[in-house]
Amino acid sequence: MTVCLWTVGRTLAYGKLHKVAPLVKLTSVAPVLSLILHIIIMLAVQVFFLFYIKQTSW
Asked: How far is CA 7 from CA 3, 14, 36, in A?
């Protein structure tokens, strides 16, 4: 762990940044809706498997 922290701490800054801004803002509808949809799908999958595992006889 110490080697990893030492290596990351010694990295230099990146050179030039890109002059053109991204086409889509992080707070626009598409990225936010995508995150919310992903959370809903993952929650549904986890709840499904929770009930599935509870019903399984071990």
From this structure: 6, 15, 35
What are the pLDDT digits (tens) for 5-58?
667 777 777 788 888 888 888 899 999 999 999 999 999 999 999 999 999 987
Neighbours of 16 (CB within 10 A): 5
Tokens representing 4 are 């990893």
Residues in contact with 24: Cβ distance below 8 Å, sequence separation at least 6, in sequence order: 30, 31
Confidence of residue 1 (pLDDT cuts 50, 70, 90): low
- Euclidean distance between CA atoms 31 and 4, whole angstroms: 32
* Token pair listed for 35: 């995150």
